[in-house]
Specification:
Helix content: 25-40%
Strand order of the largest sheet: 1-2-3-6
Largest sheet: 4 strands, antiparallel
Order of helices and strands: HHHHEEEEEE
Radius of gyration: 17 Å
Length: 160
């Protein structure tokens, strides 16, 4: 990552762009959405786990609900879920790419996540529910993210 990108990242996080402030204001809704998913997760069957996710975790379901909150409140953003290849975990990236009159791009993108250790233990595709978790807005991570790659129509390119 170039020094200029690092400086821009630090500046955006330190000063709080309008988009970052809007996302931070949604933290209570993100926590409530995650809580609903967590509360429905019944991993009590020691052999088969949950009827929907088996012995797997719920990060992908939480990410989908976070996307729903963003789409309901900030529908004009570019947004997607990302499946991390270095850890078996799914999170959200949202943001916007704007172009000024001189043709310069401004890309303002953020990762939104609840780290899995907050609500589950394990790894890979085998997770166990941590009992009695109550999500709070402080459990929501919002951090700078690389811009999503868009096609000529402004749609998100497939990520492989």
């Amino acid at each position: 990552m170039s020094l200029f990108i690092q400086i821009d990242r630090f500046y955006k996080l330190a000063t709080g762009t309008p988009l970052l402030k809007q996302l931070e204001a949604l933290r209570p809704q993100f926590a409530a959405a995650a809580q609903a998913v967590y509360d429905e997760w019944d991993a009590s069957d020691e052999i088969d786990g949950d009827a929907e996710v088996g012995q797997g975790g719920i990060c992908h379901l939480i990410a989908d609900k976070i996307l729903d909150v963003v789409a309901s409140n900030l529908p004009d953003l570019n947004m997607t879920t990302i499946s991390s290849s270095h850890e078996v975990h799914v999170y959200v990236v949202v943001g916007e790419t704007t172009v000024n009159d001189e043709g310069d791009k401004d890309e303002d993108y953020y990762l939104i996540d609840i780290r899995p250790h907050v609500y589950e233990t394990g790894g890979g595709y085998t997770w166990k529910k941590i009992p009695d978790v109550a999500f709070t807005p402080d459990d929501i991570t919002i951090d700078w993210a690389e811009a999503l790659e868009l096609d000529e129509d402004g749609n998100i390119r497939e990520i492989y």
